Amino acid sequence: MSQGAIRPETARDREERRTLEADLATSPLKGQPLRPRLRNFRPDADAAIRALGGPPRWMRRLREIEDGLEWHEVFLEDAWRTLAKEVDDRDEFARRWEETAGTWRFTRINKSIDQHNRNFPAEARLPMDPTTRDFVRINGRSYERALLDAEWILEQFPADLAAARGA
Fold this sequence. Notes:
7 helices, 167 residues, mainly alpha, extended
């Protein structure tokens, strides 16, 4: 940082100022006061103290879930492509891939997903929707996440040899 020193104006600074002045000249809001932004919350001591502990548990758990999901996707894609290179018969590929999907274990990530589904509404202080008598939807979707299983694997990586080779 310059610690208060004034630097000379550059060509870039002049261009930015010229562009800003041109935008301001055609702005319908020129000369009018800006609307005040309403705050839906009041910062309080509780929020400041909670912030000292870092991200809340539900945020850390969601990060664990996302990281675990990415880990499984990487290794599943690798196994899917490797099997496609090893096997030439479609039926054999489908049988072996479905067998792999059936034996794949999601114990750790499913435990995190289960904890998320049970605890997220309380931890995130999710409000209730009185019309549905359930927690509000987040961006139009339920907060609940589906547990991962063989069906999920086959949705992401179908037991189709052509798809595995073409992907």
